[in-house]
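Retro notes (design track)

What went well: tokenization of the new backbones is finally stable.
What didn't: we kept losing track of which sequence belonged to which structure.
Fix going forward: every design gets posted as structure first, then sequence, in one message. First example under the new rule, 351 residues:
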């Protein structure tokens, strides 16, 4: 394992915003991208954090991501929006879709936004947290590059296709559920391959469909779905909802870059609901939610367990720690960031 150095979140944020500005992503959009990537790092999900930044820049440079997308949002029905991201950065497309869906939910009680023409949009829980803090229950889905086989297959066809759900709470961090439909996020395989590490058994298959613990073989092969056929079924449903349903790419079409295709055409689905839709108002919703959370945390603990955590609670605690201590960056990623620093003339200062 290489040496790691720490950087404060505000420094990494400043660095990314200034680089993005020079790369043609200006104003609020660069702030959104930086916020999105940093939230993943602060939650301890480094596979979706600043480690993605060099690839985002590479794709902006080679034109496979549009730095000036003309994002369109059309009302198909009163509570249904069709969003075309025009191949923009996924976090910018996703943020605009979420904002439009929240505005729609204000009028209709709920709103569904289907997105095509997008790219990798970071951690799905990022959008759920944003919406939950504004008193919306949100379900966020996205498809992704083919990485897992249909159950019983030996060829990757479906993405790791995550699902995230955000539940508002009063004066407390929201409950944020964010999980991939694979045993593990593909980013962890990529990270292990870069560091030359081995994978746990049961994570992946090689290109011949044989179990492997070699990260490089796993990248050339596929990741297994979580919970066997159940994970496969959920991944298929999400690919249908985000790809087939919305008009985006699906299956092997997503981010394939084959046969002249130069756009990822990732699809997302945002379902946004006013938190007090079924109660007499937010006070009643909050009271019921807090009772629910208290009862879960008060359940008798198994041997060796000191606390029962709500989904997202560990990540929120990690965030508070890393805001004080700084975020560790591996030496490999640091070299990439130093190269970016020189290329764009933007300094990067350690904690």
């Amino acid at each position: 394992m290489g040496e790691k150095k720490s950087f404060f979140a505000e420094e990494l944020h400043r660095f990314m915003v200034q680089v993005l500005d020079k790369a043609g992503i200006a104003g609020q959009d660069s702030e959104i991208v930086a916020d999105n990537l940093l939230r993943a790092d602060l939650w301890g999900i480094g596979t979706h954090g600043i480690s993605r930044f060099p690839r985002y820049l590479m794709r902006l440079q080679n034109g496979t991501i549009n730095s000036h997308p003309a994002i369109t949002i059309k009302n198909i029905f009163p509570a249904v929006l069709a969003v075309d991201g025009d191949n923009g950065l996924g976090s910018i497309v996703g943020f605009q879709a979420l904002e439009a869906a929240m505005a729609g939910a204000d009028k209709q009680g709920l709103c569904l936004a289907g997105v095509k023409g997008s790219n990798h949009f970071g951690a799905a829980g990022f959008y759920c947290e944003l919406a939950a803090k504004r008193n919306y229950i949100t379900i966020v889905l996205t498809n992704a590059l083919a990485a897992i086989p249909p159950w019983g297959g030996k060829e990757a066809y479906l993405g790791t296709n995550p699902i995230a759900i955000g539940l508002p709470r009063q004066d407390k961090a929201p409950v944020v559920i964010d999980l991939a439909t694979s045993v593990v996020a593909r980013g962890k395989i990529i990270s292990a391959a870069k560091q030359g590490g081995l994978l746990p058994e049961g994570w992946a298959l090689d290109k011949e469909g044989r179990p492997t613990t070699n990260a490089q073989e796993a990248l050339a092969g596929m990741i297994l779905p979580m919970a066997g056929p159940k994970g496969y079924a959920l991944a298929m449903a999400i690919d249908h909802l985000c790809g087939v349903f919305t008009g985006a790419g699906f299956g092997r079409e997503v981010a394939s870059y084959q046969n002249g295709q130069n756009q990822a055409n990732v699809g997302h689905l945002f379902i946004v609901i006013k938190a007090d839709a079924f109660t007499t108002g937010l006070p009643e919703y909050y009271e019921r939610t807090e009772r629910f959370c208290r009862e879960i945390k008060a359940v008798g603990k198994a041997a060796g367990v000191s606390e029962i955590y709500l989904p997202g609670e560990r990540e929120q605690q990690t965030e508070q720690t890393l805001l004080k201590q700084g975020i560790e960056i591996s030496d490999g990623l640091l070299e990439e960031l130093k190269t970016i620093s020189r290329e764009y003339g933007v300094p990067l200062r350690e904690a």
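Added context from the reviewer: Residues 4-182+225-280+315-344 form a domain with the Ribosomal Protein S8; Chain: A, domain 1 fold (CATH 3.30.1370.60).
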